[in-house]
Every structure is written in structure tokens, then in C-alpha cells.
Amino acid sequence: MVQTTDIPVMALKEQIIENHNEFLESLRHRFLDDSRKAALQRFQNVGFPTKKDEEYKYTNLKEITEKSYNFFPKESHNITKEQFDELHLGEENFDWIVFVNGKLHKELSKVSIENVEFLSFNYALNDEKHKEVFEKYFNTIASKEQAFTNLNLAYCKYGFFLKVPKNVVIEKPIHVFYISQNQEENTFYNTRNLLIVEEGAKVEVIESHHNFDSTYVLTNSVTEIFTYPNAKADWHKLQNDNNTTYLIDNTFARQEKDSLTTVNTFSFGGKLVRNNLDFIHNGSNINSFMNGITIIGKDQLVDHHTAVHHNFPNCESYQNYKGIFDGNAHGVFNGKVFVDKIAQKTNAYQQNNNVLLSEGASIDTKPQLEIFADDVKCSHGCTVGQLNEDALFYLRARGISKKEAQALLLYAFANDAMQNIDIEPLKEKISKLLAEKLGVDIEF
């Protein structure tokens, strides 16, 4: 049973405006005050997107924006070791960074990385020596036109900051946990991540959000990734939260020449999840990879909006999104590829394939290409259908139950979107979640 909140019902937009001065006064760092106020004004001018906006025509935000939220989460928690251990991926050899109710908890974290600058976002803002870094990078690629990115700038306080110096290779993946627990009221988080990977450096990050309460949690997250020449940055998003959570995720990645950046998004849970993903090419010989697996049911909604901006020649981008929808679940995919007139020899691939398991499930898919160069290889496509009856019959004729046969076919369908995961515990976790969501016990 979802708990009700004692906060008087007030539309979220009004709460945002009303709470802002109190939020600013709660901060120790004030050098962003002018930027925060300007962002709030931009948000106030446009408000939340509605279904009249082209980018949100298939995603209704009313159930989010008509609730009341607490903007100042309680810091106290009683997370047990057993609860936390269940969130792990079998990652004893990883590093992990744990935020509970917005605050970094070192006693729950394990950080062995060396030769890097790692700080909580809040601490980095308070640290004078990092002011120059923030002025150079912070909010330079995040959109200033979108309501949620402006809202995040106005209210961001919690999150993860990592700068990997030139030629440093971080061997262990880093798992960043955002946990909400012990909140008696619906709670609103604006998390912020900043990753800077300098020339020749390499890093892999896993990000996951977890709500332990029955109250609603709304997380509005913004991540900025900067990948420099010959550097490699992988960011894996594992979205498997409960049915009282809303996640608006905005990720912006800027790449310099000869770099490789991957963002994998695995969406298995949450009441409403919106993923906005923008790649900006700022040099030649760049490789960008975006993969996604969505498997949801009941009345869940997952919306993927991607964009790749090919601004230089001889670059490649690859998008591969798979969706499996049951119950009354609704999926959205809108993938865009922009090829500038100077971006000759571009190779851009975009594919979205979906399986509907019930009559109530639906998917709105719209791959798009805008090409202004003439020497390119660009392709896009989408499919929506049901399981292949011949393949299902073939498996059942060999003594496999209908449920297991369906699961095997669906696993094979989704599997190629996992091929570039080189973190074995993560790949194993995704496989287990697929089996769990499909309701079967299969060893992979």
C-alpha cells in the first residue's frame, strides 16, 4: 500500500518555485546562485512538457507533476548490510560509491581508485580548488532548453564527480548507488554526475537507483560525460526500481577525436522512466555506442529519446534498442541522428526492435535521420511484433514448456544488445533479471 503524504496537495511547478529560496539558503556554496536563479526562470517560463510538446507526445507526466514532494530528504537511514548486499552484482572486485538520501556514505562505500580526482558533487562545489574545473565543464553540454535540465541546475546538490587524468586506466568498474530510504513523504531528488576522462584514460561506471520506501520518489538526474582523444568511457545504467519511483534521466556525452564512449541502458523497473541521451561529436574518428534493453509489464512506461550529432567526418555511431512489453506497459523510442554537411564518411546505424506479449501492451517508435552530407552510410529501422510461432513450435516439439520456450526466444531476442558489455558480473546480472522478468528459472 502506498503511503499518503501530509504535505498539502500543490502542483509540482508551484512547489519548485516556492521552495527555491529555502534551498539556496541551505547551501554552503553560493557561486552558482545566479546560474541557478536563471535556470529556475527558464523552467518557470516553459513549465513541464505536456503531450502537446512533440518530444513528449507519447509520455504523459501528469501523474508525476500533480503529486506533492519533499525537497529536503531526511538524511537518517537504517539500511542493513543484508539489504545493501542484495543490490550488488557479485562485484567483490569492483569499487562502489553509495549515496543514501542524497548524502555520500563512506562507511558503505569501497573506493580503492588512485591517481584520480573523486568527490561527491556537493563537496566538489564546496571545494574552492575545484571551482575552476566546474566553471570549465559544469553545465556546458547539458541542454539549457529542456525543462528538466533547467530544473536540475536550479536544485542539484547530490551526486558523483570523477576526473580521470591523462593515460590513467581504472581497471575496476565503479558502481554508483543512489538509495532512498526512511522517507515518510514523497521525495524529490535532483542528482548530478560529472565525468571527465582525459586523453588516453579509461573508466567504466555503473549507475543504479533504489527506493526502499512505499512513498513515491522522483529523481531528476543529469550526467555530463567528457571523453578526450584516445580515451574510453563506458556508462551503464541499471534501472530496476520499484513501482513507486519515477526517473527522468538526462545524459550528455561530448567526445573528442579518436575517442570511444558507450552508454548502455537496461530498464526493468520503475513506474515511469524517461531516458534522454545526447551524444555530441567534437572531432574525427569517434565511435559512439548506445544499447538498450527494456522489459516491463503492468502499467509501466519507459521512454527512450536519443540523439547523435555527427559534426565531423569519419565517425561512427551505433544504436541498438530492444523492448519486451507485457500487461498494459507502454514503450517509446525516438532515436535521432544528425549528420552535418562536413561530416563525410559517417557511418550511423540505428535499430529498434520490439515484442508485444499482450493485447494491452504498446510501443511508439520513431527512428529519424537528418543527413546533410552526401558520402555517408546511414541506416535506421524498427520492428514491432510478437514471438515467432514457428520457432515456438520447434522448441515445444523438443519437450520444452511453452513458458520456457518463450523465455528462450525472448532472451535470444534481447541478447545482442548486451554484446559490448565486458563486465561479466553485470552481464550475468542482466541475464538473471531477464529470466526473472520472464518468470522462468534458466541458467545462462
TrEMBL record:
<comment type="similarity">
    <text>Belongs to the iron-sulfur cluster assembly SufBD family.</text>
</comment>
<dbReference type="Pfam" id="PF01458">
    <property type="entry name" value="SUFBD_core"/>
</dbReference>
<protein>
    <submittedName>
        <fullName>Iron-regulated ABC transporter permease protein SufD</fullName>
    </submittedName>
</protein>
<dbReference type="InterPro" id="IPR011542">
    <property type="entry name" value="SUF_FeS_clus_asmbl_SufD"/>
</dbReference>
<dbReference type="GO" id="GO:0016226">
    <property type="term" value="P:iron-sulfur cluster assembly"/>
</dbReference>
<dbReference type="InterPro" id="IPR037284">
    <property type="entry name" value="SUF_FeS_clus_asmbl_SufBD_sf"/>
</dbReference>
<dbReference type="Pfam" id="PF19295">
    <property type="entry name" value="SufBD_N"/>
</dbReference>
<dbReference type="InterPro" id="IPR055346">
    <property type="entry name" value="Fe-S_cluster_assembly_SufBD"/>
</dbReference>
<feature type="domain" description="SUF system FeS cluster assembly SufBD core">
    <location>
        <begin position="184"/>
        <end position="413"/>
    </location>
</feature>
<dbReference type="InterPro" id="IPR000825">
    <property type="entry name" value="SUF_FeS_clus_asmbl_SufBD_core"/>
</dbReference>
<feature type="domain" description="SUF system FeS cluster assembly SufBD N-terminal">
    <location>
        <begin position="17"/>
        <end position="176"/>
    </location>
</feature>
<dbReference type="InterPro" id="IPR045595">
    <property type="entry name" value="SufBD_N"/>
</dbReference>
